[in-house]
C-alpha cells in the first residue's frame, strides 16, 4: 500500500506521464463541443444525476477535469471513494445541508464550531431545525426526522476534541459530518472511524498558502452523487485555477503540518509559562476536552492553539497590534503564522451567550502556527506580550 506522504505527492497526477506532462493541465473551458447529440444527451443526464464524470463534460458547472483531479487526490488522502469540491468550505457545508433536507428536517450539532458554520445552522437559512447538543446526548436527542449529525474536531477555536467513533455509534443510521479542517488527513481520517462526510475548508491547511478559497466533502460515491447534483444546480463551484492551486499545495501537506505542529508544541509550552497568559488551549498540553484522543484518533496535537490573556480584551488587542512577524489576520493553516481574536472576528456571528459558554472570552487569541523558525516566532510573540503588559501598566 502506498503511504500517505507518497500519495500526497502523486495523487491525482497518475496519468500525467502518459499525457506527456509533468504539471497538471488547467482546463478553463466553460463549454464543450457536442458533435454527437445522442452521446451528449447521455453525458448531460449522467452529470446532472451526479456522476463523477462522463464522456463529454458538456458545461463547466456540471464537470471540470482540473477540479476532478484534485477531488481524486483528496479522496485518496482521506481514504474515501469520492470527493466533491466547492467554491468555499461554507458552500460545501451548504450542499450537505440542502441534501440532508430531503431526508428530514432536523440536525444535531455539537458546539463549538467555526463561527459561520454556527451562524448558518442557527439561522435556519437552509430550512433545517438545528438542535445544539452535548456529544454525550446525541443518542437521546435523535429523532425520526434527524437527517444529520455535525461535529468539528478539533473545534474552532477552543481546540476541544470530539470522539468521532462514539458520535458515529450514538448517531446510529443518521449520517455524521466531521469538519476535519484543523486536523487535515495527515493527523486524522474520520471516514476510517465511521464518519459519512469528511468536510474541509480547503482554504486552510490543504491549500496551505493563503491564496485559494475552497471547500471539499470526502465521502462514499453513493453520498457524493446527490452532492454533485446540488453543486450543478446551485453553481457553488471551485474555479479550475483554484483547483490547480489547491492541488499544488498537496505534495507538501505532510511536511507543512508536521513542521507547524512541532513549532506549535514548542510555542504552547513557552506560552503556558508566560506570566501574561492565564491559560493555553492546546490538545498537546491536555488542556482541552478529550485531549486523551491525541495519539489515537489524532496522530498529533495539530498546529492550532488558543490562549487567554490576564489583561482581557485590551491585552489581546495590543498583542494583535504589536506582532511584527506573525500576521494579525483571520484564517489558518497557512505557511505563515496567523493570530486573531475569535470574539471580535471569526466568532462575532455566534450568539454572545453561546460564545461565552464555549469559552470564547474577550482575552482569547487564536494562533495558527506556521512553518517559520520557532525561535523567531517566539521572539515576536514574546515582544508583543511584553509590550501589551507594559502598556497595561502605563
Ligand atoms: C474556515 C473554516 C470554515 C469555512 O470555510 P471557508 O472556506 O472560509 O468557507 C469551516 N470550518 C472551519 C473549521 C474553518 O476553519
TrEMBL record:
Q: Name one Pfam family in it.
A: Cys_Met_Meta_PP
Output the CDD domains linked to this UniProt entry.
Answer: CGS_like
A GO term for molecular function: pyridoxal phosphate binding
Q: Where are the coiled-coil regions?
A: none
Which cofactors?
pyridoxal 5'-phosphate
Q: Which InterPro entries match?
A: Cys/Met-Metab_PyrdxlP-dep_enz, PyrdxlP-dep_Trfase, PyrdxlP-dep_Trfase_major, PyrdxlP-dep_Trfase_small
What top-level branch of life does the organism fall under? Bacteria
- Which residues are recorded with the post-translational modification N6-(pyridoxal phosphate)lysine? 204
Q: Which GO terms describe its biological process?
A: cysteine biosynthetic process via cystathionine; transsulfuration
Instruction: Quote the cellular component terms of the Gene Ontology held in the record.
Output: cytoplasm
- Keyword annotations of the record: Pyridoxal phosphate
Family named by the database record: Belongs to the trans-sulfuration enzymes family.
Protein name per its UniProtKB record: Cystathionine gamma-synthase
Amino acid at each position: 500500500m502506498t503511504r500517505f506522504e507518497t500519495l500526497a505527492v502523486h495523487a491525482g497526477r497518475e496519468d500525467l506521464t502518459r499525457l506527456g506532462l509533468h504539471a497538471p493541465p488547467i482546463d478553463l473551458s466553460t463549454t464543450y463541443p457536442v458533435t454527437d447529440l445522442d452521446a451528449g444527451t447521455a453525458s448531460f443526464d449522467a452529470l446532472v444525476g451526479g456522476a463523477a464524470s462522463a464522456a463529454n463534460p458538456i458545461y463547466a458547472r456540471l464537470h471540470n477535469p482540473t477540479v476532478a483531479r484534485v477531488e481524486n487526490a483528496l479522496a485518496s488522502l482521506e481514504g474515501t471513494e469520492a470527493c466533491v469540491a466547492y467554491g468555499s468550505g461554507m458552500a460545501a457545508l451548504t450542499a450537505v445541508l440542502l441534501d440532508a433536507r430531503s431526508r428530514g428536517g432536523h440536525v444535531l450539532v455539537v458546539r463549538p464550531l467555526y463561527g459561520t458554520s454556527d451562524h448558518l445552522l442557527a439561522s435556519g437559512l437552509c430550512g433545517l431545525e438545528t438542535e445544539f447538543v452535548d456529544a454525550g446526548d446525541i443518542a437521546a436527542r435523535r429523532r425520526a426526522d434527524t437527517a444529520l449529525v455535525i461535529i468539528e474536531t478539533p473545534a474552532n477555536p477552543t481546540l476541544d476534541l470530539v470522539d468521532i467513533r462514539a458520535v458515529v455509534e450514538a448517531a446510529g443510521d443518521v449520517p455524521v459530518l466531521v469538519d476535519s479542517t484543523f486536523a487535515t488527513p495527515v493527523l486524522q481520517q474520520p471516514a476510517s472511524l465511521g464518519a459519512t462526510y469528511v468536510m474541509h475548508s480547503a482554504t486552510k491547511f490543504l491549500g496551505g498558502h493563503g491564496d485559494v478559497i475552497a471547500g471539499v466533502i470526502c465521502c462514499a460515491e453513493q453520498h457524493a452523487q446527490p452532492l454533485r447534483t446540488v453543486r450543478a444546480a446551485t453553481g457553488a463551484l471551485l474555479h479550475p485555477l483554484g483547483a490547480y492551486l489547491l492541488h499544488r499545495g498537496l505534495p507538501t501537506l505532510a511536511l507543512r503540518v508536521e513542521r507547524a505542529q512541532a513549532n506549535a508544541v514548542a510555542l504552547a509550552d513557552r506560552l503556558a509559562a508566560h506570566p501574561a497568559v492565564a491559560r493555553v488551549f492546546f490538545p498537546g498540553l491536555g488542556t482541552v476536552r478529550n485531549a486523551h484522543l491525541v495519539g489515537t484518533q489524532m496522530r498529533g496535537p495539530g498546529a492550532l492553539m488558543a490562549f487567554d490573556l490576564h489583561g482581557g480584551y485590551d491585552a489581546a488587542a495590543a498583542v494583535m497590534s504589536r506582532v511584527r512577524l506573525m500576521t494579525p489576520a483571520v484564517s489558518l493553516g497557512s505557511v505563515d503564522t496567523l493570530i486573531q481574536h475569535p470574539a471580535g472576528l471569526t466568532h462575532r456571528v455566534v450568539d454572545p451567550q453561546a460564545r461565552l459558554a464555549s469559552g470564547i472570552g474577550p482575552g482569547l487569541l487564536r494562533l495558527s502556527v506556521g512553518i517559520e523558525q520557532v525561535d523567531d516566532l517566539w521572539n515576536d510573540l514574546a515582544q508583543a506580550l511584553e509590550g501589551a503588559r507594559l502598556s497595561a501598566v502605563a
